[in-house]
Amino acid sequence: MSMKDSIRIVPQGEFAIVEFDMVGEKVNKFSTPMMMRLKEVVAELRGSSYKAAIFVSKKPKIYIAGADIEEIKHLNTPEAVNAAVTGGQSVMNEVEDLPMITIAAVNGACAGGGCEFIMACDYRIASEDGSTRIGLPETKLGIIPGFGGCVRMPRIMGLQASLDVILNGKLLNAKKAEKTGLIDLAVHPSILMEQALKMAKEKMGKKRRKTFKPVGLPNKLLEGIAKGVVFSQARKTVLKMTHGHYPAPLKAIEVIKKTYGMSDRSRALEIERQGFVECALTDISKNLIHVFYLTEMVKKQTGVSSASVKAKDVKHLGILGAGTMGGGIAYVAADKGIDVRMKDINYDAIGKGLKHARDLWMKLVKKKVINSYEFQQKMDRVTGTVDFSGFGLMDVVVEAIVEDMEIKKKVIAQTAGQMRPDAIIATNTSSLSVTEMQAAHPRPEYFAGMHFFNPVHKMPLVEVIRGEKTGDEAIATIFELSKKMGKMPVVVKDGPGFLVNRLLLPYMAEAAFLMQEGMDIQKVDTAYVKEFGMPMGPFALMDEVGLDVCMKVLKIFKKAFGDRIEIAPIMEKLEKSGRLGKKNGKGFYKYDEKGYRGEVDGSVYGDLGLGSPTNPHSNQECIERGVFAMVNECSRALLEDHIVDTPNEVDLAMIMGTGFPPFRGGLLKYADSVGTKYIAEQLEKYAAKGAKRLAPAPQLRSHPKFYAT
Ligand SMILES: NC(=O)c1ccc[n+]([C@@H]2O[C@H](COP(=O)([O-])OP(=O)(O)OC[C@H]3O[C@@H](n4cnc5c(N)ncnc54)[C@H](O)[C@@H]3O)[C@@H](O)[C@H]2O)c1
Question: Which end of the chain is less packed: N or C, by CB atoms within 10 Å?
Answer without folding.
Answer: C
